[in-house]
Amino acid sequence: MSSSIGTGTLHRRWRRIAGLLASTLLAATTAILVVPTAQGMETDQPPPLKELTDRYVGSAVAAGPLASEADYRATLGREFDSVTAENEMKWSSVEPNRGQYNWSGADQIVEFADQNGQSVRGHTLVWHSQLPNWLQNGDFSAEELRGILQNHITTIVTRYRGSIRAWDVVNEVFNEDGSLRDSIWLRQLGPDYIADAFRWAREADPSVKLYINDYNTENINAKSDATYALVQDLRAQGVPIDGVGFQTHLATKYGLSDSFQPNLERFAALGVDVAITELDVRVDTPSDAAKLAAQAELYKRVWDGCLAVDRCVEFTVWGFTDRHSWVPGTFPGEGEACLFDASLNAKPAYRALNPG
Ligand code: 9MR
């Protein structure tokens, strides 16, 4: 591990000081945390997840339930100090028709975060998926498409300058074998679209952290090797990349290899921050106690692995309740992937992170 003090470390030191102040306040108000039950007994509530570590503890959030579900808002505000817009900052959400922007969902999430003292992760500037039809089927020339991409990045990064801590600049650019994924960007602009995207984002916000983000890169494998080589190359060229996001969409049936923590460490050694950006752990449904125990163990391994790496600055889950999760819609027969059940009761996975 590097002995130099990076900005992530300094930033975390301030967070530690803030955390100490918060714990002092907490100690003074312990009485408030002792919740009387219906029977008149008293139950100690564990501290929220966000108070267990100096890293950001985040969740993906959807604007729909944020607007309509008070219990969703309460758990999100209590447990997490970072939020990521699950869909609301994607291109099809913010510019469904060319030149017609809709910022309502994204603004709602940023406002909630602001009111609740939470940091925001922006997701995502350049992706092959969830592109509006006008763009996906626009048949633009390379020159036009380059201008469209630059304008998109500049517009959204400028809009949220000062409100967003980190952006997923490019998302899922690799295939499993480590080759670059086919997309309108690669086809029309060639591989340099990646470096350009980082440069344009940096021009629009000099201090936001800029990330590459992907799934199935948690372990050492062909895809994470390709990501590593790309990050090394971008750094060598002076391209402004600050971090690598590991989505970490896991399934109990596939597990996580022992290379997880060494993988985070090798990226950190390149001089970038690393972050767990979209963790969930799906099980074959219906679940049972053994499956939930296996799920809890995987959550804990990811939590411990991140906390063991000084430059792992964020632990974010892709939704916190089984009431709202992308998993069953994408993997029929699988689900229950979150820390809280559909009624917002803490599951064994939550208790593994936060035994109280
Ligand atoms: O959770 C998101 C889901 O609601 C959307 O329908 C889906 C569209 O592709 O995207 C999901 O989020 C993805 C994220 O943006 C990128 N990494 C994988 C996530 C799960 O598919």
TrEMBL record:
Keywords: Carbohydrate metabolism, Glycosidase, Hydrolase, Polysaccharide degradation, Signal, Xylan degradation. It comes from the Bacteria. GO terms for biological process: xylan catabolic process. PROSITE patterns: GH10_1, GH10_2. It catalyses: Endohydrolysis of (1->4)-beta-D-xylosidic linkages in xylans. The active site is at residue 278. Its EC number is 3.2.1.8. One of its GO terms (molecular function) is endo-1,4-beta-xylanase activity. Residues 43-356 form the GH10 domain. It is an enzyme of class 3 (hydrolase). Belongs to the glycosyl hydrolase 10 (cellulase F) family. This is Beta-xylanase. It comes from Actinoalloteichus hymeniacidonis.
